[in-house]
Write a structure and sequence with these properties.
Growth Hormone, Chain: A, about 75% helix, about 0% strand, mainly alpha, about 425 residues
């Protein structure tokens, strides 16, 4: 195995393990309403805030890392390892609030337990900002040729890691006397293992380079530069749908199949998110093949994103029509899971190609901040629509994101000329 293949394998494993922390809030207290007759509205509120806290924390962490330029003052591998280890600790602290949280969800007092848990989850998100983007930076130092596929593999691993709390919940409920504590402990142990892997076995590559410094005065370029504006609008459309679907897929499935066991629902939710790894690898291969056929242009990247968003947007609308028909809905969400994440890396690549080389770091940080801020709103908005009007309308409410994203990326593609035809998955 070559050094770069070994690095890709180890770094992907580390990302998978560390990102198991992200959606812990989406499975905590998963069966509380059935177990204790808890108020569905209060349970929904708790899950919403435990998930949104990570999104907001990630934005704060990304801005702090960019402002202080930590990935250039310290080696990226050290930043990754330290942040993963501290995130494991912050996540583990949520276990201290589990009993008060359960009492609060069941209708008792103890709202302060919710806010303490939210604080811990927000800190976890802030520290994960030193894991996900830093992992991509480390990988870029090892790959010039074949970078699209390498990034696809890395983001695929991240996707499986994001799905893993659903699987951990199922295993913990079968094996542990305290299932929720088991979920938290397993995820924290996974993140700690990720820190050890990167600290002990991953090194910077031969193409490692300093990232252009963050300059908040240049954030305005995000809106003044037409290409950047369209790429960011496309990304925002993608993000409106992505984290809302990932956050609520298990609840949506449960609403459609009311007689299905909770463990089966969580397993299907795991599969629906994890299968996105297939889309990530396809998009990575597509971008590399396009490069071989005449250059990985902005127009080519736009075509990849349009294809993925067209499929995911159609699945969002189809899911609305399939509510109440569990088998049809399961088939739809599997396709949805593949398409919804496939284009993720292409937006960042397009931004890096469109931005002034002196301010690429600023442009990427602004993209991340705006995108994850939007997810905090979309997660809560979809929950509100579901509570008020049902999951049929909530599923349909995700579709405008990719629709608007397609319009923006179509205009971007037109502005940068024709692009070679997309290769098939084979």
């Amino acid at each position: 195995m070559t050094a770069r293949a070994r690095t890709l394998a180890l770094l992907s494993l580390a990302e998978l393990l560390a990102m198991s922390l992200w959606f812990i809030g989406s499975v905590l207290l998963a069966d509380a309403p059935a177990r204790s007759g808890a108020s569905f509205e209060r349970w929904f509120e708790v899950r919403s805030w435990l998930t949104i806290a990570v999104q907001l924390g990630f934005v704060a962490g990304a801005l702090a890392i960019a402002l202080f330029n930590l990935s250039d003052h310290y080696t990226p591998t050290r930043v990754f390892a330290v942040c993963a280890a501290l995130a494991a600790v912050a996540n583990g602290a949520v276990a201290l609030e589990l009993k008060p949280l359960e009492q609060f969800v069941a209708g008792g007092t103890g709202r302060e337990a919710l806010w303490l848990a939210v604080l811990c989850r927000g800190l976890t998100g802030a520290l994960l900002a030193g894991v996900y983007p830093t992992g991509m930076k480390i990988l870029a130092g090892w790959f010039r040729e074949g970078r699209g596929l390498a990034l696809g593999v890395l983001i695929g691993a991240l996707t499986i890691g994001s799905a893993s709390p659903h699987l951990i919940w199922v295993v913990s409920t079968m094996l542990a006397p305290l299932p929720m504590a088991g979920v938290i402990a397993t995820a924290s142990a996974s993140a700690m293992a990720a820190a050890v892997i990167v600290a002990a076995a991953v090194r910077e590559g031969p193409f490692a380079a300093q990232q252009p410094p963050f300059n908040w005065r240049e954030i305005g370029q995000t809106f003044r530069n037409r290409g950047l504006r369209l790429a960011n609008l496309g990304y925002l459309g993608h993000m409106w749908e992505l984290y809302a679907m990932w956050s609520w897929i298990a609840v949506m499935l449960g609403a459609s199949a009311r007689g299905m066991a909770r463990a089966d629902i969580e397993l299907i939710a795991f599969a629906a998110i994890a299968v996105g790894a297939v889309g990530c690898v396809w998009a990575g291969k597509a971008s590399d093949r396009i490069a071989e056929r005449g250059g990985a242009t902005v127009a080519a990247r736009a075509r990849v994103t349009i294809t993925a968003m067209a499929v995911s947007g159609a699945c969002s609308a189809a899911a609305a029509g399939a509510m109440g028909h569990p088998r049809a809905l399961i088939a739809i969400v599997m396709v949805w899971g593949i398409a919804i994440i496939a284009d993720s890396a292409q937006f960042s690549a397009a931004i890096s190609e469109l931005a002034d080389p002196r301010y690429v770091g600023t442009a990427l940080t602004a993209q991340t901040a705006f995108g994850f801020l939007l997810t905090a709103f979309s997660i809560r908005a979809i929950a509100w629509i579901a509570a008020a009007y049902g999951w049929r309308w909530a599923a349909l409410a995700m579709a405008p994101g990719p629709m608007l994203g397609i319009v923006a990326m179509w205009r971007l593609e037109r502005g940068y000329g024709a692009t070679p035809r997309l290769p098939t998955a084979g």
